[in-house]
Amino acid sequence: MNSRLLKIFETGFLGLLGFTLIAQQQKRFQCAAPYFSFISHSELQQFRLRFPSLYVLDKFQVEHLLSVIRNQTTQTKDFRLYSDRLIRLLMEKAISEHSKKLAPPEGSQTQTPAQEIQFENKQFCVVVMVRSGNAFLGEALKVLPGASVGFILVQEHPQTKDPQLMYCKFPEDIDQKQVILTDAMITTGGRISTAIKALQSNGVNQENIAAVNIVSCEKGLSKVLHQFPKVKVITAGVDYALNTIQDHRFPGVGDFGDRYFGTVDQ
């Protein structure tokens, strides 16, 4: 083989190798199980120093659950099962953070074999962001069976893509409640910010809101926590990046609502 043909061969081979590596990286973003990439521990610590109202579940507590949810081949029944297990952990963390500031109401004593304890879950309101936030409701009412429930619908404007408040229904005394606001993901932060503003318009203080989601993006989190520094955000992990064309997280979990409710196009 002469030197010219050898050079052409090497150039073609290197190009093919580069294309293969890019394809593998894209595949990793699409289907990240059993590997998945969040921001590093040190980056997360720095992020939390900037935003102390951010709470991220322990990696070793959720690693396996997230690896199943991230896998694009996971079937609906397993996606729902593992999502519910993760949602339960998130809800319990939200209750824990809210309860730190609650004074037990009078008459809420429960007699145990050892002593009296105090707890009243009627102090809570779960506000569901339609539609992916509906997935949280079942587990929420298992741990807070006496909680009231509100609903809020935020949709993008078809031309401007700005989030618009389309519908909300809250309990009349929501301004007296500890609110747990549920949505599957925080991407750009626009949806959740619109929902928080709607709660504030109904008398809810920032410090009485905990926004619970499965995965978040740095960009969206920064926007929300800059605008609402007293709102608690509770998530299972923070993704590195956002696809600016589709507003999907990398590596992400796909369309959570479609996957959870079994409406994925085949």
From TrEMBL:
CDD domains recorded: PRTases_typeI
Keyword GTP-binding: yes
Spans traversing the lipid bilayer: none
InterPro entries: PRTase_dom
EC numbers on record: 2.4.2.9
Domain Phosphoribosyltransferase positions: 56-263
Domain of life according to the entry: Eukaryota
Pathway: Pyrimidine metabolism; UMP biosynthesis via salvage pathway; UMP from uracil: step 1/1
GO BP, sorted A to Z: pyrimidine-containing compound salvage
Cofactor dependency: Mg(2+)
NCBIfam families the record matches: PRK00129.1 (NF001097)
Family: Belongs to the UPRTase family.
Name of this protein: uracil phosphoribosyltransferase
Protein's organism: Paramecium octaurelia
Phylogenetic lineage: Eukaryota, Sar, Alveolata, Ciliophora, Intramacronucleata
